[in-house]
Amino acid sequence: MKRAYKILVASIVAALVVCASAVADPPDRVGRLNFIAGGVSFQPADTNGWASATLNYPLTAGDSLWTDGASRAEVHVGSTAIRLGPASELSFLELDDRRVQIILPRGLLNVRLRQQDPGESFQIDTPTMSVLILGPGSYRLEVREWGDTQATVSEGAMQALVAGQSYSIRARQSAFVAQSDWLSLELDRAPAADEWDRWCAGRDSREDRLASVRYVPRSMVGCEDLDWYGNWNETSEYGPVWIPSSLPAGWAPYKFGRWAWVQPWGWTWIDDQPWGFAPFHYGRWAVFLGVWVWVPGSILHRPVYAPALVAFVGAGQGGAIRNGNFRWFPLGPREAYVPPYQASREYIQKVNIRHVRIDDHQRIEAPNVQYVHRDAYRAQGDANRDPPQVFAQVLQQLFTAAVRNDEERKQKAVTAERKQAEVRRAPKEQKERKEQKLQKVRKKKKLPNGQWVWVEEWVEE
């Protein structure tokens, strides 16, 4: 029998067990940038620069997106679709297991909220109003050049807070707040749908027809693309499995993509495939009838995000990365995932419960833990470990490439940052030039719904 490779995870698990009570677990869910059209920029929470956004990048609290003119982007947080229109900016102030809070300083936003569990909240803040979405539905917010904000509810309901006053906005209603010294909200019927609304409705219709939600929870980020890039089969050994189609030659899980450092998880796999999110952050991989299949696991439990469901071979104590021949392979069914980041015992159970039995949970928490299922299976030839194409290049080389890519990203960010500054500075400079010879007057202003209201504005003398 071939000599078994030792997977050193004992020190990680021992540390987790010792300090479980003091560990702040990472969020169970993230956002995924799943659609890009045109120029879209991204600013991670831990950097000051902007760079070109890439598909499948996980988004979390503190991250920001910017779209150029005529560009669009779509993000999924669980089953919720968040769509950003042209010349728009969005930041996630909060994104965790229960709360999503978005800042929209300018631009056009559509939110399709499909499910809201008890205790969950979804809030959007603009320069003139803050809105709290009260349940499933379709919502639109638009922040114009001077900060005027319009909030429209196609389906559902929201609560708006304007200058300390609370307002209810219900289905087929629209609220408008002009930027002035005395903010007030005007409520009217929702305007007729425009091209943006029709585009968003088409995206919603596409997701309404998903067959994949029969096999995975709709809250699994990335399931929205599985129908279009593969097929589902039922197996006696693994249950439902998903088989990707149109793969490049020599393809294997976790081979075509890159590593990126994403807080608070650390090194995170960013896959190249347009569908490459759910199968690399949830579930397990197996070779079935000679082809790679993705095994999503039990549908009964809420999915918990992981940065990369792999095991490393050749790592030192605590999973340390050193010079040498480092390799990784995808975890198979019934194999436990041991996080390389600090996490509590409860978190380890949650992230594994869809794939590992209760006695296996107890096993992975014991000192000097081994992957018992994998060790037993190696004697028969482990499909996820033996094929040479599974092992990527030397691990250090890819991590070095990841660092180099980050440096290139930072260099590109300088150009993007300057462009962002010019875009943001232009309205301010125009306003400052105008305010040199302005006086405040009370005048009527026509709302988008055709009504006239009194507002305080600065006008030229």
The whole-number mean of residue pLDDT values reads 79
Coarse structural class: alpha+beta
How many domains? The number is 2
State the shape: elongated
Strand fraction equals 25-35%
Give the strand tally.
27
Head-to-tail CA distance between termini: 91 Å
Unreliable residue runs: 1-21, 316-324, 365-383, 385-404, 406-436
Q: What is the helix tally?
A: 8
How is the main sheet built? Answer: 17 strands, mixed
Radius of gyration: 25 Å
Helix content: 10-25%
Strands, helices and their partners?
Layout: H1 10-18, E1 31-37, E2 40-43, E3 51-52, E4 58-59, E5 64-67, E6 72-77, E7 80-84, E8 89-95, E9 99-113, E10 121-125, E11 130-133, E12 137-143, E13 149-155, E14 157-162, E15 165-170, E16 173-177, E17 185-189, H2 195-208, H3 226-229, E18 230-235, E19 239-244, E20 257-262, E21 266-271, H4 278-281, E22 284-288, E23 291-295, E24 310-313, E25 327-330, H5 345-352, H6 358-364, H7 372-378, H8 395-435, E26 438-446, E27 452-460
Parallel strand pairs: 9-10
Antiparallel strand pairs: 1-4, 1-6, 2-3, 2-5, 5-8, 6-7, 7-9, 8-9, 9-12, 10-11, 11-14, 12-13, 13-16, 14-15, 16-17, 18-19, 20-21, 22-23, 24-25, 26-27
